[in-house]
Structure to design on (217 residues):
């Protein structure tokens, strides 16, 4: 699969979200971080903003739910227009049922792992998913330093995906920048979320192109 770059609007100007989506022309998906101040110690946005953004923008939305009780809430994000919905396995009561529900409603189903959550217990769940997200920072905030200690987990996950011959996308989120993206790509990631590295740049669209080039090399 080719490389995908998903800018995270967590680092964008929340008062100008439609314009900020246009500023990353050429990006594959717009990454939308939903935080509830329970699963993570931060609060961002919810269903109504996702609904408005999906109407205002052509770029598909990749919703990353850092919330408790995703079993209850994830379907509403599909209905709001998200093309991909990621729930955290640490928060889900019934991840298989939830992934099936997200797919049945017409979105890509994705499951996220915090840094201390291993992939191995979830090997048998992988066919139920369209994407797996490995967090490379503790979720909650943009602008944190990339955790190099996650590289072995990325490699082991890539090996499991290949062993089973799955189409599953492998997404990395946290601290992705021009300095770290090559290491992640080499370890087997193919979908890269970048917040501060894109929206902190003078030219966000150029930053997306630069990241794509480095990851594709
Ligand atoms: C953090 C979020 C990330 C965040 C990444 O919990 O899930 O998507 O926006 O920001 P950077 O790229 O600045 O680390
Ligand atoms: Zn995220």
């Amino acid at each position: 699969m080719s490389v995908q770059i998903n800018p995270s609007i967590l680092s964008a100007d929340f008062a100008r979200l439609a314009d900020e989506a246009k500023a990353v022309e050429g990006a594959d998906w717009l990454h939308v971080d939903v935080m509830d101040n329970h699963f993570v110690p931060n609060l961002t946005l919810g269903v109504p903003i996702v609904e408005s953004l999906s109407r205002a923008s052509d770029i598909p939305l990749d919703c990353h739910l850092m919330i408790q009780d995703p079993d209850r809430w994830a379907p509403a994000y599909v209905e709001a227009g998200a093309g991909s919905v990621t729930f955290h396995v640490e928060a889900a009561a019934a991840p298989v049922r939830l992934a099936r529900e997200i797919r049945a409603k017409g979105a890509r189903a994705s499951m996220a792992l915090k840094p201390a959550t291993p992939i191995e217990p979830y090997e048998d769940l992988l066919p139920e998913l369209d994407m797996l997200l490995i967090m490379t920072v503790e979720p909650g905030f943009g602008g944190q330093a990339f955790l190099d200690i996650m590289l072995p987990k990325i490699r082991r996950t890539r090996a499991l995906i290949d062993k089973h011959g799955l189409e599953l996308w492998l997404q990395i989120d946290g601290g992705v920048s021009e300095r770290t993206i090559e290491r992640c790509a080499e370890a087997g990631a193919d979908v890269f979320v970048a917040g501060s590295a894109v929206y902190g740049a003078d030219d966000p669209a150029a930053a997306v192109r630069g990241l794509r080039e480095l990851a594709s090399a």
Observations:
- Strands lie at 4-7, 30-35, 61-66, 84-88, 108-113, 131-135, 169-173, 191-194.
